[in-house]
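Our preliminary data section would be incomplete without showing what the modeling component actually yields. Below, a chain of 178 amino acids is followed by its predicted structure, encoded as tokens that our downstream tools consume directly.
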Amino acid sequence: MPDTSKQYDDVIIKCRSLFINKMKDYGSAWRILRLSSLTDQIFIKAQRVRGLQQNSVQKVDEGQGSEFIGIINYSIMALIQLEKGVVENPDMNLEEAIVEYDKNSGITKDLMMDKNHDYGEAWREMRVSSLTDLILQKLLRVKQIEDNKGKTIVSEGLDANYQDMINYAVFALIHLEE
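Predicted structure:
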């Protein structure tokens, strides 16, 4: 039986490495992005994945994997923005950003482990296309919550939706690697 915790960690290590290298290239320029901009970036990535899954011709030489990694990293950035707020100028050095990345990816993994226990690893029987659709559904929910100025009546908030998108993207990457 596969070790979900280890597989999850392996995916996050790859995502984290890319995040670190982009921080070295660009610094924390992403800190100026409003949540709606991050949501739109995630939406673009998810739409491209869906297009790759539906189209018979691919014109850009990047597959689904890189897009799912982008979904994970932009979602972690969104979680950081939710907590820290948007700034006018980049304000986070590499070490601070890694601490925030690790904190948010750890909290999200803990959530996954709890849900995975309760759902009995049902995700393992899901198709990557279904995980993509769930990410898109979460994005539409996030956009509605953003339009409602962050308020919900009975539903989970923005953080839970970003965490679910991270977890669905991790599951998709695990499937793609198997």
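Residues 108 and 160 are 9 Å apart (CA to CA). The mean pLDDT is 95. Preliminary results of this kind motivate Aim 1 of the renewal.
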